[in-house]
Design the sequence.
């Protein structure tokens, strides 16, 4: 990486970190051009040079943290041997992300994030393909071995992540009636029954 590229990466990181800090403190309405440039110490021109617009900055921030969440899930999954252990690891990693990065988790689960990612559908799918492929490569041998029900991969993903995403959204919306530790203890076995080949 050239010195110019390195400086550009540092500038991008400063802007992204400032945007997340503002989002965490004040929500999306707090992420203004003025606030981002003041908090980051980066010029307005640099913001537009790197991201094109404030919306471009928020899109990049959403993609960054969605990617980090997916990376944590893959790391957790591929460090296990059995599919049942994999389910427990993925649930634990997802809920740990929500607990450890509340601002980023709120951003990733927001309606605005859904809109931004849908607007760049194919591009996002292409960027996430290595992560999705890693998950598929891990789960396919367990399907072939009769450990996991032979369901289409998108359906397996929905059965595993759907309940966890629902808990995360509920928790992040400010509803205090679900304890993340309880969810991490209870959900894996319930989810496992929905995807195991023998339903046990």
Sequence:
């Amino acid at each position: 990486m050239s010195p110019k590229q390195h400086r550009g990466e540092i500038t991008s990181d400063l802007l992204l970190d400032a945007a997340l800090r503002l989002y965490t403190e004040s929500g999306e309405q707090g992420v203004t051009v003025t606030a981002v440039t003041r908090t980051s110490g980066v010029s307005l021109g640099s913001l537009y040079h790197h991201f094109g617009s404030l919306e471009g900055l928020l899109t990049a921030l959403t993609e960054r943290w969605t990617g980090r969440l997916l990376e944590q899930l893959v790391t957790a999954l591929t460090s296990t041997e059995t599919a049942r252990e994999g389910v427990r690891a993925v649930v634990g990693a997802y809920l740990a992300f929500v607990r450890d990065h509340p601002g980023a988790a709120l951003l990733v689960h927001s309606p605005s994030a859904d809109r931004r990612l849908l607007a760049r559908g194919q591009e996002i799918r292409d960027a996430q393909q290595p992560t999705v492929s890693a998950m598929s490569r891990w789960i396919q041998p367990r399907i072939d071995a009769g450990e996991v029900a032979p369901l289409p991969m998108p359906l397996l993903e929905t059965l595993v992540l759907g309940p966890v995403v629902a808990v995360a959204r509920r928790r992040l919306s400010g509803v205090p009636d679900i304890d993340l530790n309880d969810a991490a203890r209870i959900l894996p076995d319930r989810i496992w029954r929905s995807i195991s080949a023998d339903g046990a």
